[in-house]
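Revision sheet: structure tokens.
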Amino acid sequence: MADRFSFRLLATDGKARRGEISMPRGVVRTPAFMPVGTGGTVKAMYMDQVRALGSDIILGNTYHLMLRPGAERVGRLGGLHEFARWPHPILTDSGGFQVMSLAQLRKLGENGVTFRSHIDGAPYEMSPERSIEIQGLLDSDIQMQLDECVALPAKESEVERAMELSLRWAERCKKAFGDQPGKAMFGIVQGGDIAKLRIRSAQSLTAMELKGYAVGGLAVGEPQAVMLEMLEATCPELPVDKPRYLMGVGTPDDILKSVARGIDMFDCVMPTRAGRHGLAYTRRGKVNLRNARHAEDPRPLDKESDCPAARDYSRAYLHHLVKSGEALGAMLLTWNNLAYYQRLMQDIRDAIEQGDLAQRSALIAEGWERGDLPAR
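Predicted:
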């Protein structure tokens, strides 16, 4: 394994990039999808399963872990890798998005944000320095700068104010992070749905010479076309030799279209959350197992899948588990969904290497459109 953090491109297909991020704890094949382990667990999954499905890296959430069980406690217990039994790379977000969206009675200022926990109302302070300190206690391999994520739509003046504040916080995070061999701190491009602000943010962050760059503040309710427009404006401003991470994205279609615009890394709660609510992702589109039409359907979700959850259990049984509220239903559907997402990422990587991403993407989308209703 590498003794330092590095990124190299292996192939390109148009703007799409196939690469590798190397770190002491392992190699991340890109484009990569990171399962979300909010509170030190990928919900309804064993970590061994997550790894076996092809996950090179998972995401941990700074906000949730600082509230419970507490970053200092995780640090005393050996860091998040030891605590959660995941010896491979971990990326932690800064906590900023959750502070803005979940915390109670928050007050934002130049120094950071003060807020009350959504769990018990206890007061907390989060500054750029404290965010990096917490991520250090968690011992994550990739750490994110603290930023302010503005809900869209918003006035241009408000978007610009938050973007400029995020840039100043990025400088402070970089200083707090210092030089940590084998680890990286990523900056986060902000600017809402205003291309000129996105470009300015990307250029300013690039000048800081960070090890990687994220695009934040998208997939927060705006149309997909707006998200893609912002990526088309932003990605050309980011260094070719650094990884690019689109935060909180997304659907399989979002991922395909974002890869085609130059994105390397993704995370989203969608496959795990959907699994807990009876929704399965398959090559033939989404399958809602709550629907009564599955009650006597003997077919598996995908007889050609190499995932037992997709291949070995009937839709009728999965429907029964979901309608009965059985924990096994959430476990099997989450397993299926993460297997589908990781298979999609492998197909994308293969397609970029073979130079046929556009054709492969069209076939994948055709499968979703075709659907998978039983033959009459």
